[in-house]
């Protein structure tokens, strides 16, 4: 009668726990399960297996481990192979890698019981090891699977091939692929993607083609990712004929070339100056029902501009791209660059104004192109205007950009403009470095504004910047030319204290100036 009563209590606990779990009330279910284990009811292995399974499904991994180590093992119970496998899979899917020691201990427990994880658990663990850059451990597990009674499946091979390719161990990846084929397994499209994309990204395009083409001819259907990787790989090698053959082959196998396929070929044709072929390719796209996207048109623009066909590029932008609302900053930058290279800077500037009017925001590249062109042309007022536009649009140049502009202006005798740009640089929160100061110092010294140079020389030091050898040589040379010999000597003294020396020519010039000076300068 007593045993019957205990059994009834156990059944009542199980029923209540099951209802709570079904209702999603996991915390209440945990509380009731604890009550059950602390009561005089005998809790069996099946109860722990079921309850740990619930905890795993609800990602209560820490609690599942607690019950396993503090309840299941001390009571001489074990989990079922299925529960062990779900436990390992859940730990592998957790968002951190601190579970690896726990997974290893579960595998050892299974091994001691003669249990083997199911293939899902094996593959999930393999994948985790590869993601955590533990490739050697993953390979050891992969090769030991058959001896444990669990042969790797296609997913196992895919995981290992992908990891070997990521580690640039391409020959080993090919060896694993051949083993997959020898075992009579039929690779799916995911396995083909892992192999081909991996090998092609490492430049082993011929090997990728050799390994996969037989499989495809054998009837395995692959998606455009595989073909596109091969086409891209052969294009990068300059073997466009082979790439075009693969495009024709993919069509014959029922895999229609997609937008990516055409864009890869477009990129190659435009880079190589094959403009007519690129145009025909776009026409083929449109006939095939593949609508060119912004990237396609930008590539074609690039091709026209590279072939010095800037008017044709501009016409296409106006007649085809703008009517479809498909122009972006890259489109404008491409054509503006071409106009500027053709010394048609005014047209480039008109396009700049046009893009601003259409709400397409110029970027650093846009301003770089135009400022460089107008600097070469000597149109400093336009350069200053563009710099002001940059500030208004909050496209702020860095120190290198400002320094290049200041240097160019100084070398072309536009020192006042250079000085204004230098001050704008400071006002915009960009700190000049020694090279920036040297650029403006050079301008001052070359235009005999030696006292302006000295003020700048003092300013840079007050800001904690140490003059370098170039700085001292510029200042000393400028002071000598300005007949400020005493001042030149003081700077020379400071220069030597800092461990710098004048070159022979400048040193002799200074000595001669001292000797011919009456000491009043």
UniProtKB/TrEMBL annotation:
PANTHER family: MITOCHONDRIAL GROUP I INTRON SPLICING FACTOR CCM1, PENTACOTRIPEPTIDE-REPEAT REGION OF PRORP DOMAIN-CONTAINING PROTEIN. PPR repeats lie at residues 118-152, 153-187, 223-257, 258-292, 293-324, 328-362, 363-397, 398-432, 433-467, 468-502. NCBIfam families: PPR (TIGR00756). This is Pentacotripeptide-repeat region of PRORP domain-containing protein. It comes from the Eukaryota. InterPro entries: PPR_P_subfamily, PPR_rpt, TPR-like_helical_dom_sf. Belongs to the PPR family. P subfamily. Keywords: Repeat. It comes from Glycine max.
